[in-house]
User: Fold this.
Amino acid sequence: MNVSERVIEGISIDTVFTIHVAGLDIPISDTVIASWIVMALLVLLAHRATRRLSTVPGRAQALAEALVSFARSFVEENTQGRGRAFAPFLGTLFLFIVAANLLPSLSPRGGFGFEPYFTIKPLTRDINVTAALAVAVIGVSIGARLRRSGLKGFLRSLIHPMPFMLPFNLMEYAIRPASLALRLFGNMLGGFIIMILAETVLPLVLPPVLGLYFDLFDGLLQAVVFAYLSTIFIAEALE
Amino acid sequence: MLRFSVTFVITLLNLFVLYVLLKRILWDRLAAFMDERSSKVRRELEEAGAAKRRAEELKDRYEALLANAENEAEWVVRDAEDRGREEYRRIIAEAEAEAAAIRRRAEEQAIRERDRARDELVAEIAALAIAAASEVTRRRLGGADDVAEAEAFLRSAETGRGR
Assistant:
């Protein structure tokens, strides 16, 4: 398999199986399977961390407590104390993206004629996944504005500060999720392609070094950026 | 690669399910636990602060009581000393008064003894004088002048006895 074939094979989204429901064929892609694995992992870890809560926490509980208190204080600071209720959503989003971006670093690697039995590819190389996350964020921010200002306040915000701003304000509701989704998608896909190239060009030497940035640091960074921008959007909706 | 598919909808559902599960298992549970622990720690700190304040108040009160007790003890000692001195002075005064009374009684007794001795002496002298005069009279009296002289002598002897 040459380089271009490896890249195309790497970035392609495969349908693993199809579910037939009410006369509809629902194709289940590898990214959906991976997202289920990520969900199961997160739920299991959360359950393990909180099943026996102790006043003096163990390691898992301490980590979970640090995460919860960081998410709460981060969201409260950025929303001037108005968005505390959104901390679980933003925290869940952050955990999902972190796990989705870091999970592939656990994947077995090929090279020197060795082809692993399975590989875990980043979920976020699929635009459907990042778009769904971004749309969820914009949906929640619209919900936050509706809850804070009511329908009239929301409609008035569309013509703020002048009525001729209506098309621009409407475009913002399309541009923001698009920028969120494409930033995450582009960064993760780019990193993934670079890693495939590195494995092809100089296996065993380049991947461990480049993987520190593209698999670990960039994955974490993109999760932080996504969660931070989501918090800002929700904070703006709560103003 | 950029084709939208049903994965978009499934991911939205997945995110919603994950949110519901994690909110229930992780966020709500842990947040409630942490809030309760924080309030418990705050409550215990407040209780400890109140107990400390109460202990300090008690300490101040005990120190004040102790200072009062020391003052009181000092006062008791001083009072006892004053009373002792007063008693000493009273006993000395009584003793002096008694000694004076004894001395006065002794002087009176001595005066009485002296007077009695003098009276006895005078009476004895008078008796001797009378006896002597009687003897003289018996030997030499013959005329009226002698009788008058004897009577005068007897009167003078009587007078001297009376003195």
Observations:
- The mean pLDDT of chain B is 88.
